[in-house]
Amino acid sequence: MKHLVRYIIIAILMVAGFSFGMAQTVRYLHKPLSAEGCHVEYNVSKQDSLYYIIATVTSDRLVFLDNPTMKIRTFKDDVITLEGDAIGNRNGASFGYSFGNVGISESEIKSTAQFYITPDLFLLLKDGVAKVRLSMRPMNHERTFKKDKIGVALYQLYLDAKDQDDNF
Question: Among candidates 121, 114, 112, which has minimal Cα distance to 155?
């Protein structure tokens, strides 16, 4: 019986690992202060012959500007500046906490923008992303990485989007 449970747990972990390995987005959680934080997701989209990085930030207050910019610094110290367009903001579900007789509710906002990028700039991302800054209000989102978390993954998403035309 013990071995059966062990095999089931191993099978579940393998399926979960495979599912995360096949993910179509790059994600991270950024929580610089205990009271604020955000989830950031990146995806690559090909529309006609143009490529875009789609960024979605989920937080309690961060919203993309109408014409946002994304600045990326690679580990080889190349700086990439991408101009974008805000796609939209969506208020998410409210949730709350209860402390005794006092209830505190929170809501989240999903803000999405797309940033035009050329295939040549995707090659620079292959070196790894050391820092990313998204222009938002009321403050910019900025994250520094010690190890690459999004650069190689974005490059792989670009290759997948590039191959979609051939594999129709």
Answer: 121
Is residue 74 within 8 A of residue 130, CB to CB? The reply is: yes
Q: CA distances (Å), 126 to each of 61, 115, 120, 121, 163, in order? A: 31, 17, 11, 9, 17
| pTM of the predicted model as reported, rounded to 2 decimal places | 0.73
Beta-strand runs (E) in the chain: 26-33, 36-47, 50-59, 63-64, 69-74, 79-99, 102-117, 129-134, 136-137, 141-144
Question: Which amino acid, residue 59?
Answer: S
**How far apart are alpha carbons 160 and 167 in whole angstroms?**
10
* pLDDT by residue, tens only, the chain of 168 residues: 555 555 565 555 555 444 344 446 676 665 654 455 788 999 999 988 899 999 999 888 889 999 999 999 999 999 999 999 999 888 765 555 666 666 555 678 899 999 999 999 999 999 999 999 999 998 888 999 999 989 999 999 999 888 876 666
Residue 146 has phi, psi (to 5 degrees) of -80, -35
